[in-house]
Amino acid sequence: MPMKEAVSRISTYSADTFGVCSALFELGGMIVIHDPSGCNSTYTTHDEPRWYDRDSLIFISGVDEMDAIMGNDDKFVRDVVTAARDFSPRFIVLLCTPIPLMTGTDMPALALEIEGQTGISTFAAPTNSMDLYDEGISWAFAMLARHVVRPGQDAVKDRMACSWQPVFASGGSVGKCAAPVKVNIIGMTPLDFAMNGSELSIRKVLEAAGMEVISCWAMGSTLDDIGWADQADVNLVVSYGGLAAAQEMAGRFAQPYVVAVPDGPMLAAAVCKDLKDAAVHKSSVFTCHRRSQAMDSGIVIVGEVVGSASLAVALEQVSGGGVRIFCPLHTAEGILTDRDRLIPSEKELRTALQGAKTVIADPMYQPICPPASRFIPWGHEAFSGRIYQDSIPNLIDGFDEFAALVKGED
Questions:
Q1: Are 214 and 184 in contact (CB under 8 A)?
Q2: Before 218, cis peptide (omega within 30)?
Q3: How many helices (H) and strands (E) does the chain have?
């Protein structure tokens, strides 16, 4: 790892292996982390708030020194097959970590062997425990989009038969369908949204606007729900981790997508309008992309790209001042603006934050913020684990209160 990527005062983000586990936690599959033992305990004790409340088949292979030296793949296959026969999972996912990566373990070949012996769909994720959690989530949801979502016999015909009529209001046109617009929510995991009711709040926003939620990937929906996702008219992407799946669905089923988290009433209204328009025009929209050229307010947000961009839009809507984003994770074209920056290193971020009047970030970023800046805590479970989970706000329902805090109002 280059020294510029080393951290000395802040935390590190959750790994890609844990992103896969989080994305698939509720779906009835069996996840096997090929590792001596450390990965599983780190994930369950730091990154997974659902671990003690519900069952999920997440195992560790328990590689020992001799296995690593001799490449004891037969033992790994035998253990996975035995567990699969005991628990009958809906699917199996194998996760690679540094030890099997360094010894050149052929994970796709092991997946084929296990699938052949069990008859259960088995996938080898391209993880290494050194990439970031959002890439793991992205792979997991894209895998579901490719292999779990199956087109219904009349799915395309039913979508094309929807009778849209233009409704003119306030000088513009908004598409309106005789039947409710059907939506998949893609990108929901506790790593980005915690267990604060955000997934239920997003559902309520869409349903209040007359839309029907087909599935939520992957909090509160089953694997069967996701299997029906092709029936939706449009997808709502609420994190970077959901974007690849939405793009896969756009290619397979001509489903457009809208990228944003509906933080607060004004942004929620814009998201709902864009979802309906996207369903009519079959065109994707990045509602979280800021188009205003407002003067910089001195506010900087540090965090996951879609959540940060959505919060920035919502704050600009109520304050009129421009907000900047410093993203330490992955991004995609269409989300950030020219005033934003990708900053993966602690040293570079510490320098970039100099001069910021207000910083909105996980509390573990506060040690590298300028002493003169005002710090607004915005906990992120993928960064600080469970330490601040009880205080992570639900910005869909609680945006007004959060915005008042940012503006310094009582």
A1: yes
A2: yes
A3: 17, 15
Rounded to whole angstroms, how far apart are CA atoms 325 and 299? 9
According to DSSP, residue 47 is labeled I
Decide the pairing of beta strands 234-237 and 257-259: parallel
Q: Confirm whether pTM is higher than 0.85.
A: yes
Q: Which fold has domain 296-406?
A: Rossmann fold (3.40.50)
Domain ranges of the chain: 11-131, 179-281, 296-406
Q: What is the CATH number of domain 11-131?
A: 3.40.50.1980
> How far apart, in Å, are the Cα atoms of 335 and each of 80, 90, 240, 263?
40, 35, 10, 16
CB neighbour list of residue 15: distance below 8 Å, 6 or more residues apart: 39, 127, 129, 130, 131, 132, 133, 136
Q: Does the domain at residues 179-281 carry the CATH identifier 3.80.10.10?
A: no
CB 308 within 8 A of CB 282: no
Provide the β-strand partners of residue 32: 59, 94
Write the pLDDT tens digit of every residue in 25-53. 999 999 999 988 766 677 777 778 898 88
List pLDDT tens digits, range 248-274. 999 999 999 999 999 999 999 999 999
